[in-house]
Amino acid sequence: MQVNSEPANPQYPMVHPPSSPELEVVPPSPSLIVISDASSDEAVAPPDSPVAETADPPVSPIGGITDLSNSSSEEVVALTNSTV
After folding, report:
1. Residues with Cβ < 8 Å from 34, sequence gap 6 or more?
2. Which residues contact 84 (CB under 8 A, 6 or more apart)?
3. What is the pTM of this model?
């Protein structure tokens, strides 16, 4: 009896963990990707290679970013709420 219970026990819990984490990890994955995409794009674009070409344009966007900072905050919150 004990021998049967031991092998059956490990198999039961093993099947449950992969099913639960997989399903839970799937939904949050797309949400994080969308938010990370926007942030990653901007951070990866300049340091990638456009660093020299973007050296000039950043001056203009920087000013706009500061002004939009207030508006951006509201927009970011709306997007986060929608994504969630």
Report:
1. 83
2. 31
3. 0.10
72 Cβ partners below 8 Å, 6+ apart? 65
Q: Give the residue carrying structure tokens 């919150």.
A: 77
> What distances in angstroms separate CA 4 from CA 14, 15, 16, one per listed residue?
16, 17, 19
Per-residue pLDDT of the chain (84 residues; tens, 9 = 90+): 555 445 444 454 555 555 544 455 555 444 455 554 444 444 444 444 444 444 444 444 444 444 444 444 455 555 555 555
As a whole number of angstroms, the distance between CA 29 and CA 37 comes to 12
**Cβ-Cβ contacts under 8 Å for 83 (sequence gap 6 or more):** 31, 34, 35
DSSP letter (8 states) at residue 1: -
